[in-house]
Design a protein that fits this description.
Blueprint lengths: L12 H34 L2 H9 L3
């Protein structure tokens, strides 16, 4: 008599879906990078030298 064995067949759903999701993930990463970079540069530009002199002059 032969022994019954179970064979598991792998499904490659992730491998097949990767070409569809990878560009979307890259686009989201680039958008987040640009948004954070823009936000940081705006924060530094918002503080002008006039703000610094006004802050130094107020010694109450």
């Amino acid at each position: 008599m032969s022994t019954l064995s179970t064979q598991y067949v792998a499904h490659h759903y992730l491998l097949l879906a990767l070409p569809a999701f990878l560009p979307a993930v890259v686009v989201v990463g680039v958008v987040l990078y640009v948004a954070l970079k823009d936000r940081r540069s705006r924060g530094e530009a918002a503080r002008t030298p006039a703000d610094n002199t006004r802050d130094q002059g107020s010694t109450s």
